[in-house]
Amino acid sequence: MSNAVNKFKPDWLHLVPPGLSMKEDMEHVGFSQVEFAQRMGYTAKHIHKLIKGEASITADTALKLEKVLSYPSSFWLNAESHYREALAKEKEKIALEKEQNWLKQIPLKSMIDWGWVDKFQNKGDQVRACLKFYGVASIQSFEKQTQSYQVAFKSCDKFDRDPIAIQTWLRKGEIEATKIICNAFNKKNFQSVLGDLRALTLVENLEDFLPKLIDLCAKCGVAVVFAPTPAKCPMSGATKWLATDKALLLLSLRHKTNDHLWFAFFHEIAHILKHKKQLFLEEKKEFSNDKVLEDEADKFASDLLIPAEKNEQLKNLTSEESIKSFAKEMGIHSGIVVGRLQHKKIIPWGCFNSLKVKYDIKQNIEKELA
């Protein structure tokens, strides 16, 4: 279900020059235009321009109007400000309508379906809404940002990766991260809550553990955000520093099971704790920017969930009961153990999948928008 709606905003209300209100007030008190010009200390020609909106109501003019007519100066200044803003928006809308082909470059349908932007009938309004989403003033500014991102993405020309789709997903993460109040990042504090975060793997319901997870991380300076990925954005997670003291940890739940979720989560934590402040995007390792760092993050996540010294015991887990028993001993969910066994090819990929917990972030969004 989509929350897309056609927005109707009667800009024409503000497109009426405030000079017309001045003319009505002038006539109401019985002044001719000539007499009014004399009282204001202006020429009749300038009064005519004020009425038509060809001349602006300045602060000096507003103070004079307050003395000659019935409304305070603030009324005239506000009316003038709204009028000029409406004129600028109308001019911009016409210009942006000519740029509507840009909408074909961005994942607009997903953005609308997921409530990231509203749907507008007018293409100029739609372009403006999307520029606001990306936090840029113009398409030229957007394109410069895209070029900068492509340097970080490196392999966006391979397979079905689209830098704009990835940029859009990251932008959603940034927007949601600003809504999370975080303490300044503290590495020591973050390390101290790893055990509490690991314990949350036992909680199956996403809605039950997510608030606690977000709160624990926020207290340490890390904003955790879940957002679905548009087409051609095959990312499971990302880490990006939004400031010197706040990190974004973005997850997509692309693989939809708890073993993938928790591995991706602790993988991203490794980047935050162990590596320099840069953008990390998680997809197939062969496309990664730095395989050494990715291997380090993999090992950190693996060892935190199931310590390396326990790996030998994995070979003996060939039944559902043995998996559950081992998971209980480790203090983690059995689905995570299944994922490890599958990854190590101890069991086939389809084996014991019933022990995993499945999530669908897109269904959660539809519930929120319903």
Overview of the molecule:
This protein has 370 residues and is mainly alpha-helical. It has helices at 18-28, 33-40, 44-52, 59-68, 73-97, 108-113, 123-134, 139-153, 163-178, 187-192, 194-199, 206-218, 258-274, 291-305, 311-314, 320-330, 334-343, 361-369, and strands at residues 222-226, 237-243, 246-251, 280-282. A hairpin with a 2-residue loop joins strand 2 (237-243) and strand 3 (246-251). Helix 1 (18-28) crosses helix 3, helix 4 (59-68) crosses helix 5 (73-97) and helix 13 (258-274) packs across helix 14 (291-305). The longest helix is centred in the first third of the chain and has 25 residues, at 73-97.
Structure characteristics:
370 residues, mainly alpha, 4-stranded mixed β-sheet, 18 helices, elongated
Low-confidence stretches: 1-8
Topology as H/E string?
Answer: HHHHHHHHHHHHEEEHEHHHHH
Helicity, as a percent range: 40-55%
Main β sheet profile: 4 strands, mixed
Q: Average the pLDDT over all residues and give the rounded result.
A: 90
Distance between the termini: 7 Å
How many strands appear in the DSSP assignment?
4
Main structural class? mainly alpha
**Largest beta sheet: what is the strand line-up?**
1-3-2-4
Shape: elongated
Strand content: 5-15%
Annotation field: number of helices: 18
- How much is the radius of gyration in Å? 29 Å
Concise overview:
The protein has 370 residues and is mainly alpha-helical. The chain has 18 helices and four strands.
Structural topology:
Blueprint: H1 18-28, H2 33-40, H3 44-52, H4 59-68, H5 73-97, H6 108-113, H7 123-134, H8 139-153, H9 163-178, H10 187-192, H11 194-199, H12 206-218, E1 222-226, E2 237-243, E3 246-251, H13 258-274, E4 280-282, H14 291-305, H15 311-314, H16 320-330, H17 334-343, H18 361-369
Parallel strand pairs: 1-3
Antiparallel strand pairs: 2-3, 2-4
Helix pairs in contact: 1-3, 2-3, 4-5, 5-7, 13-14, 13-17, 16-17
